[in-house]
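Support reply, case 0932

Customer input (verbatim):
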Amino acid sequence: MDIRRCRACDASLEHTLVDLGLSPLANSYVSKDRAHEGEKFYPLHVFVCGRCHLVQLEQFETPENIFSHYAYFSSFSSSWLHHCKTYALEMTRRWSLDGSKRVVEVASNDGYLLQYFADQGISVLGIEPAANVARVANEKGIPTEVAFFGRDTATALRDRGFAADLMAANNVLAHVPNIRDFIAGFAVLLKPQGIATFEFPHLLEMVKYNQFDTIYHEHFSYLSVSALLGVLAENGLRVFDIEQLATHGGSLRVFVCLENASHEKSSNVDAVLGNEEIAGLTSFAAFDKFAPKTVAMKCDALEFLINARRAGKRVIGYGAAAKGNTFLNYCGIGPELIEAVADRSPHKQETLLPGSRIAVISPDELIERRPDYVVILPWNLRTEIVTQLDGIKAWGGRFVTFIPELQVH
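Our regenerated output:
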């Protein structure tokens, strides 16, 4: 596929949403013994398809190089685990799942979601391309196949008897360069009345609140329902319901089934499509202000951090998330402005953030350093993080977020 052609409809890509310059892979954390080595930087230039309006990046690295060994483990966010447990209970009740049914999750990570179905005696199977993450899931008793998902993988699993009553795909659709082959796999593996749910950050929210830090190379696409309809239809799939979620700054849960399945279409579908049209996602109306607002947010962040530095304030970040790495690299922020970033995951501690080379420390070390400001990089988890670090108030420490606007709490 030509990298300047739309991955959904093959039209040429000519319209720019935003150009964030050069950036390393957002999850390519650097071990301290490699601190003297260079890193690869790639253009972070986002396009909007003029035909189907899928927002997307060019592809510079293969999924194999990005995801075969992965630093992100879903189980280290307690709010995300609560979200997933609630999902499992709701889906079990809504679709009458029991021991005779099977739930398959694509990009199942460390078993964070499937464990809640397994606890109810439901048969589960995870599909996860990162062998190091899949190993953790298997050790927890969640059977997990190490594979990239698509038509071929789905066909092989179906032939082995793994057809699914429910398939879950949480925050993975954006990570797929060949979105057409990926979606085709669901049409293969679903049972005739099976249901697939796709959760993804809604492009409408990203544009409305200028969430430019959700853009990184591991996210090949930025999704609206209207941009997905064509790909689903060409694979004999249709949307029959949609739920709006608060996760990741505003997400959708899209319910999909085979074209001939009996699931009735909810009024939620037309409501969301109508909102996308009103917001300008089916034209270029919503996109033209995105780049200027991004520049303004960069200026605000740098002004705050430079003033804090000149005033002798100590600033530490929290959350070594991919979105934070996009933010830091685009703004040109290094350890001279944010001295370290704390994270709960031991897989990230004692590493350096890609590009910025800011050291990742433990939350306990953050408390020991007594910063004046804690910059919350995964702003979508602000409530959870503020609760975890409530102790910084003892010495007058304050929390800072930069997106969707500069706020000091």
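We compared this against your earlier run and they match. Two observations from our side: The first strand starts at residue 15 and ends at 23. The domain at 67-279 is CATH 3.40.50.150 (Rossmann fold). Please reopen the case if you see a mismatch on your end.
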